[in-house]
Amino acid sequence: MTTPSADLPITEQVLFRIDDEGMAWITLNRPDVKNAISPDQRDHVIELLAQVNTDIGVRGVVLGHTGDAFCTGADLRARREPPPRPDDAPERTVGEVSKMIREGAQRLISAVLDCEKPVLGAISGTAAGIGAHLAFACDLVIAADDVRFIEVFARRALVPDGGGAYLLPRSIGIQRTKELMFFGDDLPATEAAALGLVNRAVPRDDFEATVAEWATRLANAPTRAIALTKGLVNRSLDSDRATAFREEAVAQELNMGTIDANEGVQAFIERRSATYRGF
To answer: For the packed helices 164-172 and 130-137, what is the interaxial angle rounded to 10 degrees?
Structure first.
């Protein structure tokens, strides 16, 4: 009899490895529940992203999954014991839901957005609800062309969480965001790519090779320059021009102190390929 994924150690519910190229692979591994993400899984992914963020040997992250779904949303059946409360207190007090969202879905999405290492989403199965937003938060996204992304919240009379109302308008505009969120229609990966929500929608037979190719390219890239670039781009739509220009100048100053920047300039002068070390 197969052990339910909820009964497995958290290190088996979320697989983790660092390959020989320095890429960290974080893999959601609860295929029996379509990778609906539990609070324990969510917290472990956040911890792993914090770990790779401070590991100088890690060059990037690949966020993927086992089974035929990337993540179909929050696992509503996986609940934690509530903290102690007075006997006459209501079941839910004012502020508890917003606190749960801040410390849960929003913290997960922020961990991806704030990770200094580039995060590559490898999506070969359905991404719905918070699962879709987890995919869209990645810096780069490769999807199998038969995958569907679903803003499923309206189907359940829920408000989108996990930063969806922040992420989507910045990628596809307000009108199309409203269409997806109001109706909850399936969005094919090919259309998501055309809209700019994912980078590539590739035939399933080419999916693993494409992910491996991009992972290798990130592993060989100047990691600190990419980290600084990620920060500039992520903050750009919330900045005025003066702030953006000032941050760009600071990023240039910081980057020119890296070994990779000096290697890049020297390689150009010497007309050879650069070899980047990630710092």
So the answer is: 50
**AA letter at 90:** P
Tokens of 142: 């490769």
CA distance 20 to 48: 18
Q: Nearest-CA neighbor of 115 among 175, 51, 174, 43? A: 51
State the fold for domain 223-270: Lyase 2-enoyl-coa Hydratase; Chain  A, domain 2 (1.10.12)
User: Residue ranges of the domains in the chain?
Assistant: 5-219, 223-270
Say if residue 128 is exposed, middle or buried (CB neighbours under 10 Å; 0-12, 13-18, 19+). Answer: buried
Determine the average pLDDT of the residues in 159-181: 96
Alpha-helical segments (H) within 90-160: 96-103, 105-114, 130-137
DSSP reduced 3-state for 142: strand
The answer to whether the CB of 142 falls within 8 A of the CB of 199 is yes
213-243 pLDDT tens trace: 999 999 999 999 999 999 999 999 899 999 9
- Specify the DSSP element, H or E, that contains 16: strand 14-18
Which of 270, 247, 267 is closest to 259 using CA atoms? 267
C-beta separation of 167 from 137 below 8 A: yes
pTM: 0.92
Residue 129's nearest CA partner among 44, 195, 187, 171 is 187
CATH topology of domain 5-219: 2-enoyl-CoA Hydratase; Chain A, domain 1 (3.90.226)
223 near 59, Cβ under 8 Å?
yes
